[in-house]
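# nightly structure sweep
# worker-07 picked up a monomer target from the shared queue
# config: single-sequence mode, recycle default, output format = structure tokens
# input follows
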Amino acid sequence: MPAPSTPADLCDLAVRLAVAAGEELLARQQSLSIDAAAVETKSSASDPVSAADRASEKLITDGLTAERPGDGLLGEEGASRPSATGLTWVIDPLDGTVNYLYGRLDWCVSIAVEDEQGALAGVVHQPPTGLTWSAVRDAGACRAVRTPYQTVWDGGRSLSLQRQVGLETALVCTGFSYLPDRRAEQAALLRNLLPAVRDLRRGGSAALDLCSVADGTADAYYEHLIQPWDVAAGALIAREAGATVVRGPGTAFPQGILAAAPSLAAPLLDLLTTPRRSV
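# output follows
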């Protein structure tokens, strides 16, 4: 069987692996908790990693190696391989680990494939609900319900942001660092942001927050410091749905990201990037 090669093929491969990894995570979740012995920590005591994260990443990387052995790998839990094809897979095997360990629903699997121009295809799959967001560069974004046994399109819904929104009616998502000093800086910024917008949400998964911008269940999402695997797929999905995405060197968010409805992007950018703030 030939290896998948078109962007749509690569997206389909990412969907298959994300759904399979999601099933692995759901099976393991039943025996885990935030206090489980299988839980370790990363950057701080409040930043856990579990055996489930690593098992999910291995399932994904094994699948990619079997079908695309020359592609590069970059995964949150340590997967790393140089690319011989010009394509690199960027993997967050479990985005929202704290939520997962507490038994909440807001966690997901995120897989993107990048070329020299950035993300080519991306998939974010939320196993507890079956919701799956996907996008191919320059081909749009969509949301579906997917399980290992069937694919039921969410009304055949492609994503396209239409609503005009200003600061005062904006629902804005963000995330917080696990480092105490940085959290204090983020709290200082929130004191200025909260009075200017409709409300704020902190869901605990950057990938899902970006998808919420894409499907209109939130108006914007920002973080000033984020890892590439957290946003590689979600940023493409948001952009392909019509969101304005500001990210990377030379932008106001060189190490982070802002994704917002187009009418909201400029005023929110002004509010979030005044020189006196360091977040």
